[in-house]
């Protein structure tokens, strides 16, 4: 058996002695000086003064006094009584909060309400014309494009948004002809463009079918 060097013995001895000392300190309790002092504890940030906002939502002017840090999603749900837009991940990854701003789809959880004065904001509540559903809403019902329904408002708003994108000729990562004046919403195009909207019930085939129906009738 190979003998250990003096250096190795010293190192092990030091570790053992340190461990014994630590055990004694733990048994006796740490010194009072180690406890954090009240001055060292973090204090909660003071709330910001509220600002008055004038927002145009579903063709109606709405007034609200909000903390300037309030997201558009929280403004809609908690202050303006429009709970159709859902809070899912609150990090812009699931698409449940998708709304239309000036016709373009955005994640309402990633933008501040104060940034949208003067914009035309459309939520799921504003798509129907009275008792007449938007064609996309009717198609989702006809094709059974939902199960639990939680993600459906964001899915529908996003689907309406991609109709405008395709009509304007905005290409996606799977568009073969990026110079086309208008993009055909094939199954592949729809899946790519809707990839930011998550359905945990996995109703994706029915969602794609509903969007394709509306696109073909447009």
From TrEMBL:
CDD domains: fer2 (cd00207). One of its GO terms (molecular function) is 2 iron, 2 sulfur cluster binding. Residues 1-34 form the signal peptide. The keyword Signal applies. Keywords: 2Fe-2S, Iron, Iron-sulfur, Metal-binding, Oxidoreductase, Signal. Residues 51-127 form the 2Fe-2S ferredoxin-type domain. PANTHER family: OXIDOREDUCTASE WITH IRON-SULFUR SUBUNIT, OXIDOREDUCTASE, IRON-SULPHUR BINDING SUBUNIT-RELATED-RELATED. This is Oxidoreductase, iron-sulfur subunit.
